[in-house]
Structures
1.
Amino acid sequence: MLNQVAVEALYSATYVENYLDAVENLPDEIQRYITRIREIDVKHRSYLRDVDIFYEQWANCPTNELESTNATKRNRAMTRIQQSLIAAQELGDEKLQIVQQLTDLIETKTRQLDQNFKNLDYASGHNSSRDTREDTPPQEEAIDPDEPTYCLCDQISFGEMILCDNDLCPIEWFHFSCVGLATKPKGKWYCPNCRGDRPNVMKPKAQFLKELERYNKEKEEKT
C-alpha cells in the first residue's frame, strides 16, 4: 500500500489537475455560447426588418376587393409577416435556452471549483486528519474488519464512488472526494495510479505493469 506521503502527494496532484481541467476550457465554452447569441441577435433583427417591410407592403395595397391582384399581394405580404414573426419567436426561444445552458455551465463549474479548492485545501494540510472529512464513516459505527477497503484512503465503501476504467487496477473503486470529483465525468476515467497525462488517458501499459508489480510487492510486505 502506498505510504501516507505518497497518498497525500497523489491527492494534491489530482486536485490541482482537476482544478485546471475545470477552468482550462471554460473561456472557450462561454465564448461559443456568446457567439451563438450574437448570431441569433443579428438574425432576429433581420426578421424584424422584414416584418416592417412586409407590413408596409400590406398597408400600401389598395383594399378594393374587386382588384384580385391587390388582394393577392396583401395576402402574400401578411403570410410573410407571419412567417417572419414565427422565425423571430423561434430564435428568441433558442436564445433563452442558450442563456439557461450558459447559466448551468457557470454554476456547474463554480461547484467543481469550490469542491476542488476544498479538496486542495485539505490535501495541503489545513485539515489535520483524513478522519475529519465530512463523508468519512462515523467512527462510532461498528465496521466489519473483514469488509473490503477501497480508494487511496484505504477505507470501506461509502458515499459516491467511481470505478477506474483500467481492468487491472488493483484498487478499482474510489470515493469522489478522494479523487477530487464533484460529479461523474463523461467517458473514460482512470484513477491517479493508472492515468497518463490526463484523467481520461491511461498511462503506458509497460509502465503501469511495472508499478503494479511494485505495488503488489509492497502490499504483501505489509500483510
2.
Amino acid sequence: MSDPLRQLCADLAQRSAQHPEPLDPSHYPADWTTAVAALNTLLADVARSQQAHLRFIAEAAHELRSPLASVQLHADILASETDPEISRQALHYLQQGVARSSRLCQLLLEHSRLEVLLGKEPVRSSIDLVQLARQVISDHDALAVRRNVSLRLLAPTTCILPADARSLALLLDNLLRNALHHTPAHSTVDISIQQHEQRAVLLVSDHGPGIPESHWAQVFQPFWRAAGKHSGYGLGLAIVHDAVRLHAGRISLDNTPGGGLTVRIELPLAPSSSPQIS
C-alpha cells in the first residue's frame, strides 16, 4: 500500500457519523483532488444527516413532553382527589393525554419506517389506488361525521399502481386527516383520482384557511407548523412527502378555489394501466 493511500485510510478511520470532518486536500497527491473532493462531499452529507437526526430527536422529545406532563399531572390528581367530579375531569384529561402521546408515537414510528425504506428498494405489489382510497375514506367516516364534514370521491373504476401497500395507505390516511383537521364544519373534502400519461394524479382539496405560498417549501419538513398554530404534530405532510418519494412520485401544493389547500400527487402507473370510468 502506498504512503498516500495509507494516510487516506488512517484519516478516514478517524472519522465517524459524530465527527465527519472534511479531509485536508494538501495531505494527498495533486492528482487525487477529484477523489478527495468526492469524499468530502460524502462526509458533508453525513454531517447534514447527523444534524437532521439529532434535531429530529430533540423535536420529538419536545413534542412528547407536553402530553406526558399532562398525563402525570392528572394521574397525580386522581391519586389524591376524593371529589368525584374533579376525579372524572382528571380522568378525561388523562385519557386525552394518553391518546395524544399514542398518536404522536405512531406518527414517529411511521416517519422512521419511511426513512429506512427510502434507503432501500421497497417491495412493490399491484395496488388499486381507487379501492384503497375508498377503504381509507371509509376509515375516516366517523371523524368526518363528528366534524360535520363531507368526504367526496371522484375516480375511475380502477387505477393500478406498483406500490408498497402500507406506505400508500399511510399517504392517504395522513392526507385525509390533515384535510379534515383544517376543513370547517358544513364543508367538503374532495378527493380526486385521475390518470394522465402513465401517471396517477391524486388531488385532495380542503376548504380551510390554507397555507401562504411563502411557506409551501417548508410544510414537508418534520414538525413544521404555521406561526400561531399549536394543534397537530407537524408530521402528517412530512410522512406524505416521504411516501411520495418512496414511489418515485411528485408532490405539489395549490390554492383551492374559494379558499383552502389542494395537495397534488403524481405516481407512476403500472405499464398496462388504462382508465375505466364508472
3.
Amino acid sequence: MGFHRWSSMWWNSDSGPREFFSPSYPSTYPNYANCAWFLQTGELQVVSLNFTFVDLESGWDFIRVYDGPTAQHSLLGSVTGNQRATFNSSSRYMTVVFSTDHSVTRQGFRAEWAFIAAPMCKDRCGSSNSRCSCESSCERYGRCCHDYYDYCYHVTPTPVPACGGSLYGSGSISSPYYPSYYHDNAYCVWQLSAPAGQNVFLSFQDLDLDHCCNCDYVNVYDGPSTPSRLIGKLCQNSSSNLDFQSFSSYMTVMFRSDYSGVGRGFKAYFSSSLNQNTGPEEAEAKTEDKE
C-alpha cells in the first residue's frame, strides 16, 4: 500500500492568504494525497474560487468543489488534467477536496479565492443567476438567494417564457431570457426545416452555459426529432465545432438545464443550403440564379 495523506485547512472572511496550492507546489504533489480546504465568508457574501494553474494526471487525479461546508453537499464541479475553472458558491460556504491515485504525479494547482457580495432577489423575483435563484423552484432545490423570503416568497412567480417550436427556412434561436441568465430546469426543443432537397445550416454565435457539461447543454440532431442521430453536443467548454449541417431537410436542437447553476445561454442562426458542401450564402446565390 502507498502513503496516504489527509490534511485540511479552514479560512474565514477575516483570515488569509487569498490563495492556496496543492501539496509541494510548484514541485510535484505526492501519490495518495487527500486534502481539503474549507472556505467561509461573512454575512451576505459568497465564495468565488478561481483555479489559475492546473496540471494534474487527467482522469485520475481530481479537484472537487462542493457548495457547502462539507463534501456531503452538492458538487459544483470537478477539475482534472489542465482544465481551468471558476466556481461560485450559493451560500457562505465552499469545500474543496484534492485527491490523487497511486501513480503518476504532476505539478499540481494554484487557486485564488475571494469573498464577493451575495446576489439579491430585490426586483428580481422569478429569475436566476449563476450562484443562486429567486425562482419559486429554489425552495425545492435549496438554492434560494439569501433574501428570497424577504422579497419573493409571497410574490406570484414570473411566468417561464415559452421556448422551442417549429421554424422554417432561416432565422435565429436563443435560450430563454437571452442575453440574460436562463432559468433552472429549462427544456426547449426546436425543429428546424428547409425546403425539399435542401439542408439546414446552424451556427452558434454566442454560448455561455453552466460549467457542468452533463447539467446544462445543447444537443443537435440530424432529423425531425430528438430520437434522430446526434451530431453534436455543446456545453460550457465548447469553443470549436460550433457550426452544424444536416444531411436532410430537418434538424432538431434541444436545450436542457438542471436545477442549479445557470449562464447567459446561447444564440444561434440557421438557414438553408442546397447540399452538405454548400454554405448558406452560396445557397442563396444559387437560388437567385434559378429565379
4.
Amino acid sequence: MERMTGEPAKNAPRALRADAWRNHERIIAAATALLAEHPGASMEELTLATGLGRTTVYRHFHTREHLVAEVYRTSFAGARRVFADAGLDRCPAEELLARAVAAGLAAVDAYPVLINGPGLDISVGGRLNPDYTDCLDVLARAMGRAQEAGLLDPALPCRWLANSLLDDCAGVVLFAADLRACDREPLPLVLEAFRRAWGRRGGS
C-alpha cells in the first residue's frame, strides 16, 4: 500500500515539469514565428499567438524583453548546430562555399527570426551579442578556410564575411517564392552573388 500511494506523488512532479516544458517550447515556437513576420510585436500579441493563457505565458516570461531574448538565444543556438552539422571544417575546399550557403539557407529557413537582421538585437552595449558571436563562429571559421584556399578576399574579416553570407541567405529566403517564380533557385543565386562580391578578385 505504501508503494501504491507513493508512486503517484513521485510521478506527479514529472508530469507537471513535462507539461511546463511543452508550454515553454510552445511559447518559443509561437513567438519565433510571429517575430519573424512582425519584429515589433507586443507582449499581448505574442501571448495571443501562443494560444495559452496570459498567466501561463507570464509564468515563463515576465517581460517581452525576456521572451524576445530567449527566442533569439534559441535561434542562434539552433543555427549554430546547423552550421556545425554541415561539415564545413572537413569538406573539400571546392565544396566549402556551396555548403556554407546551403547551411545558411537551412538555418534561416529553420529559424526565421534570423531574417530580421539577422536579429533584433545582435549588439549589447555596443558589442556583439555573445549568443550571436557563438552562432557565427563555425561559419566564420569556414570563411577563413575559404580565404586560405583562395576563394575569398583574404583582407576581409572572417566574421564579417559570415555575417554577410547570413544576411544574403536571409534576403533570399524572404523572397524565395518570388525568385522561384522567375526560375531562380536560392542556393546558386546566393553562391554566385557572394563569390562575385567577396571573391579574391570580387568587386566592391
